[in-house]
Amino acid sequence: MALRPVTVMAAVCDECGWTALHAGDDRRGAGYRAGRAGWQIPDDSDTAFCPDHWHVKCEQCDRAASGPETRLLKTGWRLLSGRSDKALCPDHAKDWRATWR
Fold first, then answer.
1. Alpha-carbon distance 77 to 71, whole Å?
2. In sequence order, what are the beta bridge partners of 88?
3. Sequence-ordered strand ranges (E) for the chain
4. Mind listing the pLDDT tens digit for each residue in 26-72?
5. Could you report how far apart the first and last alpha carbons of the chain are, in Å?
6. How many CB atoms lie within 10 A of CB 5?
7. Interatomic CA distance for residues 31 and 8, integer angstroms
8. What pTM was estimated for this model as a whole?
9. Please, which residues have CB within 8 angstroms of residue 50's CB and are 6 or more apart in sequence?
10. Model pLDDT for residues 3-30, shown as the tens digit of each residue
11. Are strands 78-79 and 86-88 parallel, antiparallel or unpaired?
12. Which residues, at least 6 apart from 20, have a Cβ–Cβ distance to it below 8 Å?
């Protein structure tokens, strides 16, 4: 067995600095693996957030929140696009539910 330095890509939380143990050999692979492990990797930015520090912003009123995905969902936020930061705040999520009934 030989020991060699290896370069890999890994997601690093922009809020707390935690590094995902789900690395890959390129950006796409590392982002995919981190996303499958509960990380938020917004599509159109260079940011990453660990499962405890998701950031969302309401598409209707620009209200923002952060925290674990489960807490955001329990407090009424509606996530619009998987692991993205696109969302509806609790006030606008109610309107959305009424529209689609």
1. 9
2. 78
3. 54-58, 64-67, 78-79, 86-88
4. 888 888 888 888 888 877 678 889 999 999 999 889 899 999 989 99
5. 61
6. 4
7. 12
8. 0.73
9. 13, 15, 16, 18, 20, 38, 39
10. 888 777 888 999 999 988 777 778 888 8
11. antiparallel
12. 10, 11, 12, 30, 33, 34, 37, 39, 48, 50
